[in-house]
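Box 3.1 A note on notation
Throughout this textbook, protein chains are presented in two layers. The first layer is the amino acid sequence; the second is a C-alpha cell string describing backbone geometry. Keep the layers aligned when reading.
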Amino acid sequence: MPLTRPDNRAGLQRAAVMLAIGLGWLAGCTSTAIPEGEETRHGALVLRDVPSVPDSVFDRLHQYQNTRAVRLHGWTAEGLLVGIRFSETDQLHRLRTPMGAREQLSFFDEPILGAFTTPANQEGFVYARDVGGSEFYQLFWFDWATRSHRLLTDGRSRYGTVVWSRGGDAIAYYTTERNGRSRDVHIRNLEDGSVRVALEEDEGAWTPLDFSPEDDRLLVSRYVSINESRLFEINLATGTRTPLLDPDLTVAVGMAGYDADGTGVYFTSDLGAEFVRLHHLDLATGEIEVLTADVPWNVEGFSLSPDGDRLALSINEDGYSRIGVWQLPGHRPLALPAIPEGVLTGFGFSPDGDSIAFSLAAPASPADAWTLSLTDRTLSRWTRSEVGGLDPDGFVEPELVSFPTFDEVDGAARQIPAFLYSPPGPGPHPVLVYIHGGPESQYRPAFSSTFQYLVGELGMAVVAPNVRGSNGYGKSYLKLDDGVLREDSVRDIGALLDWIATRPDLDADRVVVQGGSYGGYMVLASLVHYSDRLAAGIESVGISNFVTFLENTQPYRQDLRRAEYGDERDPETRRFLKSISPLNHVEKITRPLMISQGANDPRVPASESEQIYAALKAEGIPVWYVLAEDEGHGFRKKANQDYNTAVMTLFLERYVLRTGRPERPEYIIH
C-alpha cells in the first residue's frame, strides 16, 4: 500500500515543526513536542509519527550507551588484532600486551565487518567493509610497513569468507561478481594481483573453508539450508571437485579443515545425530570417526594450531560456551584453568601454537579479549571493556528457565527454554519479551546494555525465549517450525504469555514483544494473534509479507530463503505464505507498534516496513517509524543506535510502563 503525500496544510505544519527543531531540537535532545503524524529528521534518521524525546530520557540512557565491547579478529606478529568502537563505528586496533595501550589502525565512517590474519604473512592483513549497511562487502589490504589501505575487489559486488593459503601468498573468498546472484569461489594472489576461478556454480551458496598443507587442494561447502549442506574438495591443478560425504545424505556441515599432513579432514556436522559433532574423515579410506559422541550439545567451532599439533573446540551448552583443547594426534584433552562463563565470539591459535586467544562476552560483562597459555596453563585478560562508568556489580545475571507449550514430548508438555532477567523486588514487573531472528538462530546470554538498562532503570523484566526452530537444541527441535508448521513458533509465544500470567513477579497486563528480522515477523505475528494480551510491539527490519519479502530480497539470497520459508512462485506455497503474513491480517493488530528500518537493507528490504506502517496507519493504530538512511539490516552506527533506543524508551513509557493493556479506542488517531 503506497504512502500518501501530505496536503499543503500538513506541509505548513511540518515547516513550523522544522523551525522549532532548528531552534533547539537538533542541538541535542529537547522536550519540544513534535505533532504525531509528521515526518521529522535527526541526523540520518527519518522519523515518522515519532514525538520528540525529552532530555531526561537521554540522561538516563547515556551511561548505558557508552559501554564498549572487544571483538577478536586474529593474531599479529606483535599481539592481537581486535575490533573496538571508540566513536561512531567499530574499527581495527592492535594490542601488544595484556591490558596495554590500544593502537587504532582504521578511522572510517563505516564499520569494519571482519579482519583476517595469518602467521604465514606478517606484511599485512585483509579486512572487509561495506557502505551504508548494504552488505556488499569489499576486501581491502592493510600494509604494516606503510599503514596504507588498498582495495582488492571491484567495489560493487559482494565478497566474503576469506581463507588464507598456507604459504600466505593468496586468499580464497566467495564473490557474486559474475552475475550478482551466484556465489563463486575465487583465489587471489596477493603478490601479483592475479585472480583464478576455483569454482563457478549457479546453484547453492558456496564458501571456501581451508587450503591443504601444500596449497594444492581447497575445501569448500555448498550451503542449501540450515539442515542441509555439502562438503567438497577441489583439486586446484585439475579443477576436479570431489564430494567428501555421501551425496544422498541430508546433513548439515559447519566448519571443516585439513589435519596436519592433509591426509584427513576435521569437520562439524549433525551426521547421524541430533547435535552437531566434531568428526575426522580419513581421505584415503573414507572412514569417519566421531570425536564428540558423548557431548549432547552442538560443537560451535574449532581451530587447529599452525603446526597441527593441537585442536581447540567450543561447545554451545545451553547457550553458554565451553572451551576445550586437545593434543594431537590422539585427541588427548589438556587440563585448562577455569574460564569465565559466557559466550565465545571468536578464537584462534597464536603463530607458535602455544596459546589460544578468544573474545568472551558474559551476561554482566561486555566482550573482552583473553589469551590462554597452553604451556603454563595461565589465563590472561587483555582488555577490560568500559561500562559507561556504571557499577558492574549492579548488572543482572539471567536465570535459565523453561515453560510448557501446547504440544507434548513423550507424554509430557514440551518445554521451551528461555533466559529471564529480573529486576530487584517482588514486582509485578512489566515484561519485555525479546524474540531472536534467524529464524534458526538462538538467544545466548551475552552482554546487552539495553537489557541492563531496561531492568536497572525502567524496572522491566526481560524474557528471551528460544522458541521451536531455534538452533542449539538438536535438529528435530530446529525443524519444528518448517513448512506449514511456521506459526507453531508463534503459538510458543502464546504459551509464554500463559506462563507469565502464572508468575506473581511478572505483570501479564504490561507485556511488550520485541524482535528484529525474523524476530520482527514474530512480533507482528504475535500482535496478530495476541493483541488482546499484549500492550505493544517493537520490531526492526521485520518481514511483514513473506511473498513480497522473497520477491524483493537481494537475488543472491532468494534461493537460500526459499529453502527455509518455501518458494513463493509455487501457487500452493504462495497461498500459504500469504495466509500467515501479518500484512494480510492488520485488522487483528490493535496495539501500538514501533518500527526501525535501514533504508539499504539487502536482506529484508525497507518496503516490508513501509507497507506495514502504511497499513496500520490506515487502521488508526499508533505506529512510530524510525528509518535510517545510512544503515542496512540493523543499526551499526552509534548515533543511530542511541537515538533509536531513546525513542524505544519513550515508546515503552507511553504504551507499556504507565498503564496496562488499554482498549483499542484509546489508540485511534483522528
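Residues 638-657 form the longest helix (20 residues). The two ends are 20 Å apart (CA to CA).
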